[in-house]
Amino acid sequence: MRRYWEVKRIAFPWLRRDDTQSESTPLIPKAKADAEELDNITSELHQANNEQDRSSSVFTRIKPHYGYSLVEYFLKYCLFVCNLLFTALGLVVLGLGMWGLITKESFAQEKIGSIGTDPMLILVSLGLVLTTLCLSGCVGAIRENYCLLKLFSTMVLVLVTAQILAAILAYSLQDQVGNYLRSGMLAAMARYQDDLDLRFITDEIQSNLQCCGADNYHDWEINIYYNCSAPGVLACGVPATCCVDPLENGTVWNSQCGVGAQQLDEFTAQSVIFLGGCLGGISRWIEQHEGLIGTVSIVVMGVQILTLFISTRLMESIRRHRGQI
Prior knowledge:
This protein is mainly α. It is 61% helix and 1% strand. A hairpin with a 3-residue loop joins strand 1 (247-248) and strand 2 (252-253).
């Protein structure tokens, strides 16, 4: 509030002026000069009060400034770099999946019905989810965008929860999981010649696990080319990856080494092909590497939880910083 000083002049006897003109006084009236002097003093006081009000308003606009700590800067750029790398990885996976679908002409009218079982669709879905998830975290971290970070943390939380639930269900429903694996492998064997990706996956499983078929080598009868009623040369046979020694003299790949193997008894066939099924081989591989699988699962889960903690801490810092502005 502006305060005005009220100046009241006290008329002392020795300060009284004679306003009457005489020969020794000037012609300008003294009362007029005194009024002008009083106006000057009053205007100076008003100007001083205005300057004081302006300076006080400037000081009231100054607020304390909040700055990020070194730890918060480290968490911010750590989250940015990690999500940037995984975004690039997601784009690569997405590109490989789309390239596989386009190369095999999976979008053609005669093949669009079986696109749901195409393994390239798994790569496309994985790449799309990974790119969307990590891109939101990358942009949200570097731009300090609260909404994107909240979206990223929510998606990570949902992903962690889904993984925990999937692990619990897989452990409690082991028989059903085995049946799903058997159905999936039989479907891949039935389309062995029709889908190059399924053929590649089946060959890798059989050669690395040294197995043949889902339960045994007779499962290859499900394939129309290896069925014993087929007219071709592959009838009653198995793929070369089922053979114990598919290389002749260690150099030349013999693609006909499994011809007629289904007609052999187990004692004779064991010297030519692998008798055991791949489902049993997968179970044995899991048992042999359960320590490694558990370690990798814990590390992956720990990284996701750490990412969730960093994004939550960064969101709190952004909210606190905005509250101070």
